[in-house]
Amino acid sequence: MAYLLIERNGMINVIEMNGCTDCVMYLANGDVEEPADGWSPEAIERNWPGYHVVVAGDENTEAHFSWQACAVCGSTLGGNRYPCAAWKCEGTK
Ligand SMILES: [Zn+2]
Predict the structure, then answer these.
(1) Could you give the CA distance from residue 84 to residue 53 in angstroms, rounded to a whole number?
(2) What is the pTM of this model?
(3) For residue 53, how far is its CA from the centre of ligand 1 (angstroms)?
(4) How far apart are the C-alpha atoms of 10 and 61, rounded to whole Å?
(5) 10 C-alpha to center of ligand 1: Å?
(6) How many whole angstroms separate alpha carbon 18 and alpha carbon 55?
(7) What is the percentage of the chain residues whose pLDDT exceeds 90?
């Protein structure tokens, strides 16, 4: 897994985490066809204000099933998890 990032002052902190299928579809496509009950993109904004959140795996990355809460939206529904990453955007607090 590799990231291409522009460093400023040598400080960029990438947080690696696992995201649910809905979050990954939304992050990758900007849309979710049939989101789980209660899922909404606002949850991502709420959990990660001022952060840029992306899908970190490539198309060959295999999902793994987990009951752990989705780190992106906070959903506690069990399901597939995919690698995601987040970093704070320039100019945000
Ligand atoms: Zn999620």
Answers:
(1) 7
(2) 0.81
(3) 11
(4) 29
(5) 30
(6) 9
(7) 67
